[in-house]
Amino acid sequence: MAEDSRIRDAARADLDAVNAVVEAAIHTWKLPERVKRLALPVYRYTPEDLGHLQLRVLEQSSGIVAVAAWEPADPRDLPGAGSGMLLHGLYVDPARHGQGLGAGLLDDASGAARMRGHEGIVVRAQADAEGFFARRGFKRLPVRDEARDYAARLWLPLS
Q1: Rounded to two decimals, what is the model's pTM?
Q2: Can you list the alpha helix ranges (DSSP code H) found in the chain?
């Protein structure tokens, strides 16, 4: 991560920049263009999201270059009893991939989860991102309910 990087809470005024990073990241996914276009509105963050998600940005001198969002996980998404955090999204400006920005935000999320007493982090990853999460210790969870469980649900224990 660059020396001029800082991670902070997102503010309402940041949402346009946040959503620009999200959109740029989604455009790199290995999905049909129509699917990406239809999915974009669902992935954009709104002022209402600031009320229930922890939305963090990684900012450099050029502006916001990466975004992470999380919330407490539904117990049905966890591998066992206890509590966990759902990593709702982790997005990095494609021009900055490979610079440790996603890892920096993931470390920030892990610290927040530990402070809240969570036993781990669960993420519903896009197929393109599974390798990123696997390299950081996440393990795939089995699909227990095909009608509900996301196929690429990954878990990182924090103990």
Answers
A1: 0.90
A2: 15-26, 33-43, 101-115, 130-135
